């Protein structure tokens, strides 16, 4: 069994919200519930999140779309490459999260305890 962590961080790389997903589920499926009820000016993501539905939702919200384009996309969107370089903050968060052995190895038996470990690790990371 594999588990994916879909995380949303703020502009400083601190965890705002996350969702656990089965390993076989596509990442973009869980984005709408992840961003529901959160106000933000833009979303920076990699090409796994490049979907017309997500781009339309972000445009409806008035948020800037900074998502790397999938190579097969017919209509390419213009993205600000200077802002896209800040995507490393989420990557840095995941690197810090994986320093915790129980998270990196998925040692928790239930999703509930795994979520609790992620919250605890995020609190420790934020306190550093």
Provide structural commentary.
- The protein has six helices and four strands.
- With 128 residues, it is an alpha+beta fold.
- The chain has one domain: Nucleotidyltransferase, domain 5 (2-Layer Sandwich).
- The chain has a two-stranded antiparallel sheet with strand order 1-2. The chain has a two-stranded parallel sheet with strand order 3-4.
- The chain is globular and about 45 Å long.
- The model has no long low-confidence stretch (mean pLDDT 90).
- GO terms for molecular function: DNA binding; transposase activity.
- It holds the Pfam family DDE_Tnp_1.
- This is Transposase.
- Residues 2-123 form the Transposase IS4-like domain.
Short account of what is shown:
It comes from Sphingomonas panacis. The protein is of the alpha+beta class. The protein is 39% helix and 18% strand.
CATH class category name: Alpha Beta
Catalogue the unreliable spans.
Answer: none
Number of structural units classed as domains: 1
N→C terminal distance: 32 Å
> Which sheet architecture does the biggest sheet show?
2 strands, antiparallel
* Element order: H for helix, E for strand: EEHEHEHHHH
CATH architecture: 2-Layer Sandwich
CATH topology: Nucleotidyltransferase, domain 5
Total E-strand runs: 4
Label the structural class. alpha+beta
Strand order of the largest sheet: 1-2
Shape: globular
Average pLDDT rating: 90
Radius of gyration: 15 Å
Q: What's the structural blueprint in terms of helices and strands?
A:
Layout: E1 3-9, E2 15-22, H1 31-35, E3 42-45, H2 52-61, E4 64-67, H3 81-84, H4 88-97, H5 101-104, H6 111-127
Parallel strand pairs: 3-4
Antiparallel strand pairs: 1-2
Protein name: Transposase
Pfam families: DDE_Tnp_1
GO molecular function: DNA binding; transposase activity
């Amino acid at each position: 069994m594999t588990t994916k962590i879909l995380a949303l961080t703020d502009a400083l790389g601190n965890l705002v919200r996350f969702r656990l997903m089965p390993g076989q589920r596509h990442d973009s499926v869980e984005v709408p519930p992840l961003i529901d009820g959160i106000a933000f000016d833009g979303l920076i993501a990699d090409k796994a999140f490049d979907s017309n539905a997500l781009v339309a939702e972000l445009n409806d919200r008035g948020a800037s779309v900074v998502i790397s384009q999938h190579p097969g996309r017919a209509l390419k969107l213009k993205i600000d490459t200077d802002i896209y370089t800040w995507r490393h903050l989420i990557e840095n968060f995941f690197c810090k999260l994986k320093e915790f052995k129980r998270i990196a190895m998925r040692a928790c038996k239930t999703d509930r305890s795994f979520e609790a470990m992620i919250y605890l690790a995020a609190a420790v990371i934020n306190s550093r």
